Amino acid sequence: MTAWRLVACLLAAAPPLTAQGGFARLAGRVPPPALTAIDSILVAAHREGLPTEPLIEKAFEGGAKGVAPDKIVLAVSTSASQLRSARALLREAGESQATDPAEVIAVAAALARGLSPELVGQLTAVLPGEPTGPALHAVADLVGHRFAEDSSVDLIVAAAQAGLRGLRFLDVAAAAVQDLQRGRSHAAALAHVTSLLPNVPPPPRPAPAAVSRARRVQPGPERP
Amino acid sequence: MTHIDPLLHRVLDGESPSDDLTPPQREQFAALQSAVRLLAEAPAASVAARVMAEVRRPPRSLGHRVAQWLTERHAVTIAVRPVWSLALAAALAAIAVIPARGPGPVLGEQEGIAQFVGRFPGAKSVEVVGSFTDWRPGAVVLRDDDHDGIWRASVVLPVGEHEYMFVVDGERWITDPLAGRYLDDGFGRQNALLFVRPLAR
Q1: B contacts of A223 (beta carbons < 8 Å)
Q2: What secondary structure does DSSP assign to A56-119, as a single string?
Q3: Which of B131, B139, B186 sits opposite A75 (nearest CB)?
Q4: How confident is the model at residue B44 (pLDDT cuts 50, 70, 90)?
Q5: Segment B78-106, tens digit of pLDDT
Q6: How high is the pLDDT of residue A90?
Q7: For B140-185, what is each residue's pLDDT tens digit?
Q8: What is the CATH number of domain B111-196?
Q9: Contact A203 B155 (CB under 8 A)
Q10: What is the pTM of this model?
Q11: Contact at 8 Å (CB) between A69 and A103?
């Protein structure tokens, strides 16, 4: 289906504007031709119980980057599909996780990074009731450096069994990638990092000067 | 007191020519003249007289005295214990080393620091736009204080996952080449992916 056909379908299925919750937020930040179609995607996602914030963010992103309206609609629609798939995967793993919007968003991001649904399901089964986002991204990091999918999942599962949780999974992946950069083979790097568990090195803390310089993010000025 | 011959007296006063003097009187005249020369070459006053003259001089004004004190050389001697010298040196070193900035923001438990660094030689402006700014430009501006083309910013962000891109000169969207973790943005580019960790202080 081409982008314009998709837009046409969405426009045809769009409910009245008064029913659209995200319309006011999108106005002024998204090209007007895309507004109605995006809003109909938001309404549909809301009815399905999917988190709508990532969809609004995607629309903002497209507007900020000056993307053509049809491409923004397509990207928002693709994001909605990823959220739908993520929720389906989580429902297979356990009903309680499926209601957590943060978890749905994390799994959708993992799918967007190219992880297969089977691999995602495997990891969510290892960490029932826990946030899986960092573990999924750790596997995605490893796969991105040409570690085999199965071996990557095995390493993160071993880290979980060694008691590591949350962002520490990213440290495990970072340690394996560093070993690669030091000249170890993929197999040797995996074996070495597995032998270190759970004592993989944490990332360096920000320098004191960087901390003292840090500013809070203030809303930027509106731009046309 | 010795009396001087009246003729010799008149010659000394210039009232008579020295030719009128007898040879003994001439010798006496020469001796008197040398005595006059000696007196003429002697100091005008004694040490005591000069001291008294100095004492009687009217006092100088306060401004004059201050100006004189400021312009004259003075020998200053400071007696300091070595331990205080070391303490002073340590304090000066600390002032030089500790940055002049404040202690920085107070972070919450669910906040951390994100550092953005990019090399953009010749750029007029660089900013970071991402999910943490609602993809709104202008919120995180990088700086290149030493004009070496390396732009930096350090910001407080909520703990967790964030997507972002650099925006150079307000129009060029550039993926952070140092991020190491990327996500297709759905528009044909890649967003950098950042994980912010809590920073306990």
Answers
A1: 137-138
A2: HHHHHHHHHTT--HHHHHHHHHHHHHHHHHHHHHHHHH-HHHHT-HHHHHHHHHHHHTT--HHH
A3: B186
A4: low
A5: 777 788 888 888 888 877 665 555 567 78
A6: 85
A7: 999 999 999 999 999 999 998 999 999 999 999 999 999 988 999 9
A8: 2.60.40.10
A9: no
A10: 0.69
A11: no
Total count of residues recorded for chain A: 224
Q: What is the pLDDT of residue B200?
A: 64
B188 DSSP assignment: S
Q: Within an 8 Å CB–CB cutoff, is residue B108 touching chain A?
A: no
Under the banding of pLDDT at 50, 70 and 90, the label for residue A96 is low
Beta carbons of B139 and A75 less than 8 Å apart: no
Residue B147, Ramachandran bin (φ over 0: left; ψ between -120 and 50: alpha; else beta): left
Residue pair B119/B150 in contact (Cβ under 8 Å)? The answer is yes
| Percent of chain A residues topping a pLDDT of 90 | 56
Peptide bond into B177 cis (omega under 30): no
**In contact, A58 and A76? CB cutoff 8 Å:** yes
Q: Can you name the residues that pair with B140 across neighbouring β-strands?
A: B128
Of A60, A71, A213, the CB nearest to B154: A213
CB contact under 8 A, B199 and A211: yes
Q: How many CB atoms lie within 10 A of CB A137?
A: 26
Question: Where are chain B's structural domains?
Answer: 1-60, 111-196
- Mean per-residue pLDDT, B17-32: 84
* ipTM of predicted complex: 0.83
Q: Do B113 and A167 touch (CB under 8 A)?
A: no
Length of chain B: 201
pLDDT band at A20 (very low <50, low <70, confident <90, very high): very low
B187·A71 Cβ contact <8 A: yes
Q: Which of residues 117-156 of B touch A (CB under 8 A)?
A: 129, 131-140, 153-156
Average pLDDT, chain A: 85
Distance from CA of B131 to the nearest CA of A (A): 7
Q: Could you say which of A60, A205, A215 has the minimum Cβ distance to residue B156?
A: A215
Q: Tell me the backbone φ, ψ of residue B184, rounded to 5 degrees.
A: -60, 135
Instruction: Compute the nearest-CA separation of B168 from chain A (Å).
Output: 12
How far separated are the first and last CA of chain A, in Å rounded? 32
Q: Decide if B135 and A61 are in contact by the 8 Å CB cutoff.
A: yes
CB contact under 8 A, B173 and A65: yes
